[in-house]
Amino acid sequence: MNKRVAIIAANGGLFDAYKVFNIATAAAATEAEVAIFFTFEGLNLIHKEAYKQLPLPEGKEQIQQGFAQANVPSIPELVSMAQEMGVKFIACQMTMDVMGLTKEHFVDGIDVGGAVTFLDFAKDADITLTF
Amino acid sequence: MKADLVVDAKGLACPMPIVRTKKGMDTLQSGQVLEIHVTDKGAKNDLSAWAKSAGHEMIDMAEEGDVLKFWIRKA
């Protein structure tokens, strides 16, 4: 049976996005079954508009250039790559209700679920990560 | 060394070399050899770990200037 990797994405900055999607795509490339639960600010990482310009930490704006020089893929590219490789995205229903967001605000192909949806996947996970 | 497929991942940063390697490997049959070219220094350990984890055999690696080359036989 394949390894299973369960990730919680709870923060919405550019660094957070790279941590989440690099680990997720690398895991998927290693034949793992991967699901990410996006909650609170983490929802920014799959928000159709917000994910195109995620903020850098204050005072670190100059690092933007470093990303370009290192030829790091953009977040939208990583998101579609992750999905293409079978990474499952679960958006937190409760946070969406609190923030007045609907499924249409997010990239295509996501699931919307509650904490139990994630826990059910995570209970048999070999690796669980929180970002 | 004769490879059945060559993947060029030069200039790409993590996790792209691994993603390209996986996609290349998916097109091969068991026993065939994939050759990968990268410039990402982290890929040296990453590709070894990836091959091990997927059960493939890392046959050889070489350094030519800035380019690292790997040969992996599909399990």
Automatic annotation (TrEMBL), chain A:
It comes from the Bacteria. SUPFAM superfamilies: DsrEFH-like. Pfam families: DrsE_2. Gene3D superfamilies: DsrEFH-like (3.40.1260.10). InterPro entries: DsrE2-like (IPR032836), DsrEFH-like (IPR027396). PANTHER family: CONSERVED WITHIN P. AEROPHILUM, PEROXIREDOXIN FAMILY PROTEIN. This is Sulfur reduction protein DsrE. It comes from Anoxybacillus ayderensis.
UniProtKB/TrEMBL annotation, chain B:
The lineage of its organism: Bacteria, Bacillati, Bacillota, Bacilli, Bacillales. CDD domains: SirA_YedF_YeeD. Coiled coil: none annotated. It comes from Anoxybacillus thermarum. Belongs to the sulfur carrier protein TusA family. This is UPF0033 domain-containing protein. InterPro entries: TusA-like, TusA-like_sf. Residues 7-31 form the UPF0033 domain.
